[in-house]
Write a structure and sequence with these properties.
alpha/beta; Leucine-rich repeat, LRR (right-handed beta-alpha superhelix); 2 domains
Length: 343
């Protein structure tokens, strides 16, 4: 993945449906060939192997892990595991890679993993999320699952959250005050208000490609000053028609890259000028860098926009002013001289 790019394509099981797999539990024999990294145990009184690497073995069950409480690094990617509850017994777990399995539920019991820092659950079939919080977790990947909604409680150390290609209708609340990168592309979110972007002062990258958005109202938070550190915003493939929607971004002085490709607004003849007039500090709009000539032209265009707006406001004010009775009399000088009709 590039610095600002999408978080990647589908997992190993994306291209084919989940069929039946013969029972193939993880055993102590298999573990003996996959375990490594001898280290001092959490209590400091002895040593134990702390790393398990068992990818792509068609494993279906990991209940045996309850006997290995000192594991810190677990890679069980590209297997056929459905139940991850046994991981709750790995008190000192720091990193777990379960991408490409068949997990449908991440239960609340996993919230006990208070030291967990890196979690990859991409390309499973997750529909239910019950973890209240992982306070030390910095990276969480939930791409290519079946979540229709996501709420995160105590994720106070999270810097990278990716939930692309699910069926998300909302991502709220997100108690993630240190979040720097948020990827929610390819979800039917519909409205910015369905995403919790409050208190995200560290957010630098926001991906909302193909989320069914028609307006950016709500992106700036309840006070209209949200996302003060945003650098990159991808809104490609939505349904934004008016360049006036960009007014919701004008307070974000750090924004340098904006992607609006495949939105109706890009068909406007003066599209790039209208955007750059509102966001003069952009370095790139869609795939093309901003040129010096464009900056000069956009500056002049902005002056025209302001003058046009001032003229329209003055006209509206004049139209709404009450009329002076003396002026009306001057317009019809004979009005006051008229008497009753003579019959």
């Amino acid at each position: 993945m590039s610095e600002f790019g999408d978080s990647g394509g589908g997992g190993a099981l994306d291209s084919e449906p989940h069929g039946e797999v013969a029972d193939n539990p993880l055993t102590t024999g298999t573990i003996s060939s996959c375990i490594s990294l001898l280290a001092r145990t959490g209590n400091g009184l002895s040593h134990a192997y702390t790393k398990l690497t068992c990818p792509s073995r068609a494993l279906t069950d990991i209940i045996v892990l309850s006997g290995y409480p000192h594991l810190r690094y677990v890679d069980l990617s590209n297997n056929a595991i459905r139940n991850v509850a046994p991981l709750a017994g790995l008190e000192f777990l720091l990193s777990v890679d379960l991408h490409g399995n068949r997990v449908e539920k991440v239960g609340g019991e996993l919230g006990a993993l208070k030291y967990l820092q890196h979690v990859d659950l991409k390309a499973n079939g997750i529909r239910t999320w019950e973890v209240a919080g992982w306070p030390l977790c910095g990276v969480l990947n939930l791409d290519d699952n079946a979540l229709s909604g996501l709420s995160l409680g105590d994720f106070s150390s999270l810097v990278h959250l990716s939930v692309t290609r699910n069926t998300l209708e909302y991502a709220s609340p997100l108690k993630t005050p240190t979040l720097q990168k948020l990827y929610l592309s390819n979800n039917p979110i519909g409205k910015m208000s369905n995403i919790d972007l409050e208190d995200k002062k560290h957010l630098q990258v926001l991906h909302l490609r193909e989320c069914g958005l028609e307006s950016l109202a709500g992106l700036a938070g309840s006070d209209g000053r949200g996302l003060p550190g945003l650098v990159y915003l991808n809104l490609r493939g939505n349904n934004i028609h008016s360049s006036a929607e960009i007014d919701h971004l004008t307070h974000i002085t750090t924004l340098r890259i904006l992607v609006l490709s495949d939105n109706p607004v890009t068909s406007h003849p003066t599209y790039r000028l209208e955007i750059l007039a509102r966001l003069p500090k952009l370095d790139r709009l869609d795939k093309d860098p901003i040129t010096d000539d464009e900056r000069e032209e956009a500056s002049a265009y902005k002056i025209q926009m302001v003058e046009k707006s001032d003229t329209a406001a003055k006209h509206d004010a004049e139209e709404g002013m009450p009329r002076d009775p003396d002026d009306e009399a001057e317009e019809d000088p004979g009005k006051d001289d008229e008497g009753p009709d003579d019959d």
